[in-house]
Design brief:
The radius of gyration is 18 Å and the shape is globular. Helices cover 15% and strands 32% of the residues. It has two domains: 2-62, no CATH class; 67-282, Fumarylacetoacetate hydrolase, domain 2 (Alpha-Beta Complex). It has helices spanning 22-25, 34-37, 41-52, 85-90, 161-164, 172-175, 223-231; strands at residues 2-6, 9-13, 18-21, 57-58, 67-68, 77-81, 100-102, 109-110, 113-118, 123-124, 127-133, 149-156, 159-160, 182-189, 201-206, 209-215, 241-243, 265-270, 274-282. The chain has 284 residues and is of the alpha+beta class. It starts with a strand and ends with a strand. A hairpin with a 2-residue loop joins strand 15 (201-206) and strand 16. It binds zinc ion. Zinc ion binds next to strand 6.
Length: 284
């Protein structure tokens, strides 16, 4: 099943490429707000086959600005640092033996198309697989973890490196939470949409030049392991969002270093969920 947040409404994308308004087609059984569907995830999965048979309106007719974030208001956002060995190496940091976890504050979340206002400093890109929790829980075993995932999408963990490294301890959460620093979308795809959900290609390009290309099979802690370790400490709730770490190719790891500049277009993609496009804008 593939979902999208189109014009602020929960939409199902049919296999034939139609857009079905779930609230309308179920006579209000489901809320039009996509975030609400994660609280009733099993019910939505049961309703999906009938909805997938409807014609819907053509996906091609949906304007890009109409797409929003498929999980726009989670209760918790988790983000994993240094989760690809080659990225840890380019950051001159050791591959962690346990999860490196921070948050992106929910006001940083944004949709898959639009502008990003650059704060002063050094803003870097990080393409990441983003998972949304369907069924929550505590102490979820790794071999059960995929059944707790509603779906996956692609996101950017935009990061202001100067603030991130200022002070005696890293300021990951703050430096990665400027408005617009957590875009996700355009589609959310359930794990069964992938031949192997632990092996998905993702990447990003600036002004047409590919800067990151990776595969989620290279994660130090694959998503099931992330879910097992997080949920051993804190309960996961339906609709929670997990940024799973970035493959190599970020700007701070380059020589010379490179950061996003006003006018740059950042295109971010993951197989199965499509691409996001963001234009960088000078800010104050
Ligand atoms: Zn990251």
């Amino acid at each position: 099943m593939r979902l999208a947040n189109i014009s602020g409404r929960l939409s199902l994308i049919t296999p034939a490429g139609g857009v079905v308004d779930v609230a309308q087609e179920t006579d209000g059984r489901f809320s039009p707000h996509i975030q609400d569907c994660y609280d009733r995830w099993d019910e939505l999965r049961e309703a999906a086959p009938a909805l997938e048979g409807l014609p819907g309106k053509p996906l091609a007719d949906v304007g890009l600005p109409e797409f929003g974030n498929p999980a726009p208001s989670p209760r918790q956002v988790f983000a994993i640092g240094l989760n690809y060995a080659d990225h840890a190496a380019e950051a001159s940091l050791a591959v962690p033996e346990d999860l490196t976890v921070f948050t992106k504050f929910p006001t940083a979340l944004a949709g898959p198309y639009g502008t990003v206002v650059l704060p002063p400093g050094t803003v870097d890109w990080e393409v990441e697989l983003v998972a949304v929790v369907g069924r929550g829980g505590r102490n979820i075993a790794a071999d059960q973890a995929w059944s707790h995932v509603a779906g996956v999408s692609v996101g950017q963990d935009l990061s202001e490196r100067t603030l991130q490294s200022a002070g005696p301890a890293p300021q990951y959460s703050l430096a990665k939470s400027f408005p617009g620093f957590g875009p996700v979308g355009p589609l959310l795809a359930t794990p069964d949409e992938f031949e192997d959900p632990d092996k998905i290609e993702l990447g990003c390009a600036i002004n047409g030049e590919q800067v990151q290309k990776g595969n989620t099979s290279d994660m130090v802690f694959p998503l099931p392991e992330i879910i097992a370790r997080l949920s051993s400490i804190t309960p996961l709730l339906p609709g929670d969002v997990i940024f799973t770490g970035t493959p190599p190719g970020v700007g701070v790891g380059r020589s010379p270093r490179r950061f996003l500049a006003p006018g740059d277009e950042l295109v971010t993609y993951m197989a199965g969920v499509g691409e996001m496009r963001h234009r960088m804008q000078a800010g104050g």
